[in-house]
Amino acid sequence: MTDLDKDLLTLERAADDLRRGYMAVVMAGGAARGDDGRALALIPAELANTPSLARFDMLTDTSFILLTNNRAASLKVPGEDWPVVRIARPAWMKAEDIVALADPTLDLATPLKGPFKRLNHAPDAVDRAAVKLVKWARLLPAVIAAEVPASFAADHGFLSVPAPAVLDADYTQAAKLRQVASARVPLAGAENTRLVSFRPLVGGIEHIAIVIGEPHRHAPVLMRIHSECFTGDLLGSLKCDCGEQLRGAIKAIGDAGGGVLLYLAQEGRGIGLISKLKAYALQDQGYDTVDANTRLGFDVDERVFAPAAEMLKALGFDAVRLMTNNPDKVTGLERFGITVAERVAHKFPTNPHNEHYLATKKARTGHLL
User: Fold this and answer.
1) Cα separation, 284 vs 354, whole angstroms
2) Which of the residues 303, 318, 343, 364 is marked catalytic?
3) What is the pLDDT of residues 89-105, one digit of tens each?
4) Dihedral angle at the C-alpha atoms of 274, 278, 284, 285, nearest 10 degrees?
5) Distance (Å, whole) CA 118 – CA 166
6) Which of the following is catalytic: 301, 318, 321, 343?
7) For the chain, what percentages of helix, strand and coil (3-state, to nearest 5) are there?
């Protein structure tokens, strides 16, 4: 196993620890990466409780809260357009206050926050990686952090991950996707269908290729990238058009004689199911889908399309006719070496529950609707 593989494996284990409320450490690098001894110990702000804070404070010195600029802006913290922002952790702040700071769905219940003091520390790779690590754990992008010696993790038995491994994880894991299973699964609308699963070499989330018919490799293949949507795909939610897009794409590809649908594990534009439900709660308060994501601290769209490109290459396709209304998917595939010969429109009628959602996509995220 290479050092990079070991880093990715440790990253997955550290993310698992964070989801359980345990501490992890992000280092500046390692000997081969020019480590200068900097490291941050961190725990997720979303999961803060009195015992975890007491243990964190017992093992570290002065701590602070690290937020994305999007979340800091919603809390009226003056910023510098930095991607992440350090703010001072006031002495009065208890565990429930930290949770409320991280989770905007609690804003109405806890309206009197702040004012907060931004620490004048331009974010470096370690700060950015600390926030990215909790995103990787499918948690809200806010942490309690403290600067610690490079030996801290080894001294106290915590996992440590080099910052470069965290920041590059989306792309290095995509490059290590491997086919792990394949089976014929007849579908409604496309009976001649095979499902091919892909998993990163060192573990992680699986993505599925739905190969319909016998598509030719010598011409651009009709295909769609579909990010999983538990609420729309499985439950038939009317808040989005995902279920219609999924089933409509399968039927359209079947009717066309064959193609590929890539079903990517990127729920909620990459923020995960629980955070997506929090975004829905904010939409109930009057925020649109864009502002809900940014108020949570995320980017408008957290997805990367490197896994889709790698899956297509593994299946033998290097040129596609892409069924999408999202220009970012076109540029996302082309960035990773896939030729998009044609964009094929793929839209469906609105309903009273998703009309505003689709209008927002058209007006604010450039969707061609």
Assistant:
1) 13
2) 303
3) 998 899 999 999 999 99
4) 180
5) 25
6) 301
7) 40, 20, 35
